[in-house]
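user: Kindly work through both lines:
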Amino acid sequence: MSKVLSSVVDAIGNTPLVRLDRLTEAYGVEGTILAKLEYLNPGFSKKDRAARGIIDDAERSGALRPGQTVVELTSGNMGAGLAIVCGIRGYPFVAVMSRGNSDERARMMRALGAEVVLVEQLPTSVTGQVSGSDLELVDRAAQRITTERGAFRVDQFHRDGNWVSHYLTTGPELWEATEGKIDGFADFLGSGGTYTGITRALKELKPDVQCYVVEPEGAAVAAGQAVTNPEHPIQGGGYAIPDLQFLRGVPIDGFVQISGHDAKRTARALAVREGIFGGFSAGANVAAALRLLAGEMSGKVIAVVICDSGLKYLSTDLWE
């Protein structure tokens, strides 16, 4: 029987792991895809774990003072997680986000008590398609607000609490749920925290597990490719940042590039065939797993993360 929790922060993690047998059958591939339903976290995304991990570390180290304002750039998911954690623990929170992200995300963060600052995109950018250059504008705004308010900057691309949260929780949860019967893992890159934490945890337990980086077609810099499509539609990652700190020294067994079209199509199939209502990056992850099962990982067991909820994209073309 479940125990009574002291706050919703204690409900973060221990998300279900589900077989996608109806999808693999429909696509005619051999093997098993296991989907970690991170959209069932309180903030509807995997970023709840990173938000709690970074705030926990900052409290322990004294970097975050009681009542101090917290600031972070976000595509919406980290912001929702931080709004929850900061609200429970008494820190004012300012989320800084590009206008290119879906409006549902800003509305959710405001509903959770965050102050939301929206940053205009570059004149050449397309709404709904946030590039690395757009993210740089958001970062500058976040830096300015941090200085002006004497705030604590979460800095999710650099603080180890991000990847360590997945190393200590998500990775071991995958291992325990499968009893170690897992052959591969594929993950769409945002900050790199999820890939790094889970890969480190799984490789320690089973060195021959195959871990794959998933990126958008035309913005696959981790794979060493030229950027030809920085305005891809897969929100929440694929920013074509050339040097993600968390990936340094972390094993990468292969790279998979997924088009925006395939990410959308797979997210829709995931909803219809499996009843799992995920976002763009969930579609990219599952599309990558399907491609791997159709090729080099045929017959194997591959885990992926359902990063966030499709509810955050109702105003986008994902559900047209």
About this structure: The mean pLDDT is 95. The radius of gyration is 18 Å. The chain has two domains: 8-45+160-319, 47-153.
